[in-house]
Amino acid sequence: MTEETQQEEVLGKAYDLRLVRRLWYFIIPYKRLFYLSLALLPLQQAFGLAQPYLMKIGIDQYIAGKNLLGLQTVMLCFLAALIGETVAVFAQYYFSMLVAQRCLADLRVAIFSHVQKLPMSYFDRNPVGRLVTRMTTDVDVLQEMFASGVITLASDFVMVIWIFGIMLYLDVKLALVSLALIPPMALAINFFRGKARQTYRQIRVRIARINAYLGEALSGMAVIQLFAREEKTYREFEKLNADHRDAYHLSNLYEAGLYSMVEAAGSVSVGLLLWYGGGEVLHGAIGIGTLVAFKEYIHRFFVPLRDFSQKYTVMQSAMASAERIFQLLDTPLDVTSPKNAVVPKPFRGEVVFDHVSFHYKAGDPVLKGVSFRIAPGEKVAMVGATGSGKTTTIKLLNRSYDIQQGSIKVSGVDVREWDLRALRRHIGVVLQDVFLFSGDVRANLALGDPSIPLERIERAARVANAESFIRRLPEGYDARVRERGSNFSGGQRQLLSLARVLVYQPEILVMDEATSSIDTETEALIQDAMEKVMRDRTCLLIAHRLSTIRNADRIIVLHHGEVREVGSHAELMEKQGIYYRLYQLQYEREELKLASHDTPAQRLA
Amino acid sequence: MGRISQYIWRYWRRYLFGGLCLLGTATLVMWIPWWIREAVRIIEHGGSLSDVTYYAVLIIAAAVVQGFVRTYSRALIFNAGRDVEYDLRNDLFAHLEKLPLSYYHKQRTGDLMSRVINDISAVRVMLGPGVLNFVNAPLYYVYAMALMLSMDVRMTLAAVAPFPLLIYVAHQFRGRIMKSSLEVQQQMSALSSHVQENLSGMHVVKAYAQEDFQAQQFIALNKDYEVKSMEMAKMRGIVNPVMQGINGLTVLIVIWYGGIRVMRGDLLVADIVAFIAYLNVLAWPTAAFGWMLSLVERGRAAMRRLEEILETNPEIRDEAASPAIHALKEGIEFRNVSFAYERQKNGHSALEEINFTLPVGRSVGLVGRVGSGKSTLAQLVPRMFDVSTGAILVDGQDTRKLALRELRRLIGYVPQEPFLFSTSLKANLALGRESYSAEELTRAVEIAKLDRDVEIFPLGLETLVGERGVTLSGGQKQRATLARALIMNPPVLILDDCLSSVDAQTEAEILHGLRAILKEKTCLIISHRISAVREADEILVLDEGKIIERGNHDELVRDGGVYAELFQQQRLSEELEQI
Ligand SMILES: Nc1ncnc2c1ncn2[C@@H]1O[C@H](COP(=O)(O)OP(=O)(O)OP(=O)(O)O)[C@@H](O)[C@H]1O
Ligand SMILES: Nc1ncnc2c1ncn2[C@@H]1O[C@H](COP(=O)(O)OP(=O)(O)OP(=O)(O)O)[C@@H](O)[C@H]1O
Ligand SMILES: [Mg+2]
Ligand SMILES: [Mg+2]
Fold this sequence. Notes:
The complex is a heterodimer.
Chain A: H1 3-9, H2 16-27, H3 31-63, H4 68-117, H5 120-125, H6 128-135, H7 137-147, H8 152-170, H9 172-178, H10 182-219, H11 221-226, H12 230-282, H13 288-329, E1 351-359, E2 365-374, E3 379-383, H14 390-397, E4 405-410, E5 413-414, H15 420-426, E6 427-430, E7 439-440, H16 441-446, H17 454-463, H18 467-472, E8 480-481, H19 490-504, E9 508-512, H20 520-534, E10 538-542, E11 554-559, E12 562-567, H21 569-575, H22 578-596, H23 600-604
Parallel strand pairs in A: 3-10, 3-11, 6-9, 9-10
Antiparallel strand pairs in A: 1-2, 1-4, 4-5, 7-8, 11-12
Chain B: H1 2-10, H2 12-44, H3 49-98, H4 101-106, H5 109-151, H6 153-160, H7 163-200, H8 202-207, H9 211-264, H10 269-310, E1 331-339, E2 351-359, E3 363-368, H11 374-380, E4 389-394, E5 397-398, H12 404-409, E6 411-414, H13 425-429, H14 438-447, H15 451-456, H16 474-488, E7 492-496, H17 504-520, E8 522-526, H18 530-533, E9 538-543, E10 546-551, H19 553-559, H20 562-578
Parallel strand pairs in B: 3-8, 3-9, 6-7, 7-8
Antiparallel strand pairs in B: 1-2, 1-4, 4-5, 9-10
Helix pairs in contact in B: 2-3, 2-5, 2-10, 3-5, 5-6, 5-7, 5-10, 6-9, 7-9, 7-10, 9-10, 14-16, 19-20
């Protein structure tokens, strides 16, 4: 687990009101629908409340007075109220769900778009599974809030007030006796509240953990199986799963307690009513119809309260989700285009690193005062031991991360002043970590631009030497690519990602170990084909195999995050520095090995 | 539904006990209206206040007891739902762990995740709140009916006359809700798959300024999800109020018909009140009936999706009587091995007629063009895939007859694409080994030349590596996977192009360190570079899935085939640089 998870646990107290206000922001576009659904609430309640009243009239006046016609009229009114209520309830639910679905869809898009803009450093720290949870499960919890009718909470409250008013109007003392239990209940609810929120927070954290763990285990299943780690992994998963379950066990108890308490309080109140009201009737202070109506009102009073207790738990859970979601939405976008972003025209493929220092984690510098310049159209190679900071240099060039010191200029403009999108459009990178999207070969090469003609794609594939194997696939360019390209060989994936950058036709071409998994023969073919592509482009090549960079104009040697040597092959050879040694090593290795070790033939003898 | 009942069965005690508690609660709930009726009757007849008080106290006492029993029963049943969820999720995970690689090549991670999280949760809702209502509703109905019947048969019959309507509505909507739920869940899966993939490819998304395109795709999927959810909500929205309305209808009938009879003098107002009270009690189960309908249908739809996973046969699994092997004695043999991936089933195969032996203590090198089948061949040894025809023998035994775990523990595998888990570097290195000495760790780290990197990391081996090892450099990742295999100290080592991202100097050092180890081990080495395989006892050259040349380095160079050409080319390019 990464550090962030712990941070989530100690997340400070967020105020519900603020959360609700932020949610409201998403409802605003559907304000009208929302108000419509709200407007239906009093209607629905009026229809509902009319029913006991009609009942009272029916019993007290007509049944007691033996007036059949009157009873029939009242009952027809009752029927009308019933139909009215049914229709109003449906319409209210329908409109509120419409609002919910739309605004939550917007919320999901907002999260997704926000996440797209988050800096790479965020993804280094946050497991994918957790972010997926935010966009799916957490938003679903909010949907549950709407579906369970939490927006009717306010109207439930109004309803309860209404009933209270009517009861007071009918008989003050009776009303007070019937509702004597309200104050202690309020205290109890407050107690549950604090508890429930805490557990729901825990639950959100734990479900996200399960998701993160699951996501990772699923994508690394091959490794788990290869290393026969199934049992251990299972135990770890089980532990997370158990944590999640335990948190829910607690919340279930709270929920059940709250619900049952309200339910019991309703019956106790009826008992109180009978005891006190019975006396009143016997004394002739009130009519029996009033008692019956009161009983009915108590029922109607406690139903919303009971629902309230349920909605309340849903609400608590929803607020816990909303906290997470808004926390994500509040994550600052450190790497964005500035207000008045520049797109220099005409574009010159010049790259300048000026005393660039960079660290991923404070106190652990990766680049230390790196300076170099690549002239437009120049081909520069970057070599250096593994972990020396080559890939990092590239990530800085296309501003995947921001540097802490110095400046990086592309076409004479600091990358931080560039329009980010335009900058990345001009720089095409073949990344060291090959990644293909699921879909088909063509979509992977065209990367989301359907207007790119097939011919251009084919040309790129030809240059990257990917054409031959694509052609051999039964569906050719329409062949299915599975997640991460798992149905292609390692080298084939690399060829595809190389072809992709060629389709992209960037002004600056950056290749990070673009042919590391390619055989020598194919590599040679690619190099020949690439020569033409590279001719009028600025190129930055990173390679461990020195043969790969043989047509570079200059070579930059990076060592422990510092530029140690810069110059052409010949110059560097003359200098007899790091490059020279590297070179000697690679070249002489063959000879060395033959000399220092038995050849297999000798061993056999 | 067979599988679901197995899970319910596992917790039958709890469900039974919870059910009994519900019965208790229901009993109390049902007596309360009865007592109300008695009390009202006394009041109506102008009886004594103490009699009224008696009933009032009874009601209050029953309410309090009911409160506790209800808390208990609800918690019990909801928790049982959570327990089933827990079990089901564990079982799914365990099952997923058994499924072969070929399954994962077909499935999308986000889809599987969605099933294990969202679908299970839908099943849980069915088994917690769903079961509760499932038990409660009939209980309430039977009780209320019995009591109402005991009061007045005709009146009861009149009151329940609209109930068949209820059943009709439920029947009408069942199938549709099921279908709609299935669609919603599927769309949810599609949505999470997209998000999951987008996030794991974020570096590419950013580098190629694909954010907008990705968002567009997301918006389309999201819109679909919205529409499908709305479809679902609409049905839920119709069913619930209709159910409630039907309940209201029964009240209406009671007052109307009851009123007429009161006027005739063969019924008391108190009876009407009691009837209404009972019907009120039924209001919740009736409304819940509609709600339950959608829960159950949704749960079933979800379960169906889970069963798709659970019913997938783990094709690669232990045969019944697999003998255990602890050490390699003779070696590994490929005998007439052919293998085709699924998409290749009717075209040509990835491997054809592969025959070779890898005697214990020896090494075989594999070279060949991109996509020639090297990784495929290597993956067949630990049975990541099963051969289509032929057999792979370990010590003369078909690998399909060996215990899978034992077989895999014999092999230290360095995959072509490094994969690390988001824990500490140390935990990653120790993946294949429960216990190891500090020296073993240091040695493995040294041989993989990870020692210098570890020295630089402020946290050393405790450094967290991020998902897939994103916070390491390409070469560091690769060397970490090498060290991970070495620390296992297995008799067999399979190295699939494991030095491709390592610079020449480090490579030379690693090869130097490896050489000592490789002597004691049986190895299969895949590489594009002659330097890594030239000392192998036998080198196989693969092309389009067939072995086209074999022999040791000297022989192959002498014979002047593809290998010799490759050798020349690599030398040539190196010499070229010298000029
Ligand atoms: N996202 C990250 N967070 C923290 N540290 C990182 C991150 N990416 C790289 N590093 C560290 O920065 C250093 C330089 O890494 P970089 O990827 O730039 O190396 P490289 O020169 O490309 O190496 P290689 O040849 O192995 O690919 C390494 O020590 C690495 O561990
Ligand atoms: N999961 C899969 N489904 C279908 N075809 C596959 C799958 N994996 C690989 N292939 C195909 O099988 C062939 C052999 O692939 P393999 O990965 O064995 O090649 P390789 O020799 O390791 O190549 P490389 O040097 O590029 O790693 C390739 O044509 C590849 O496209
Ligand atoms: Mg790198
Ligand atoms: Mg391979």
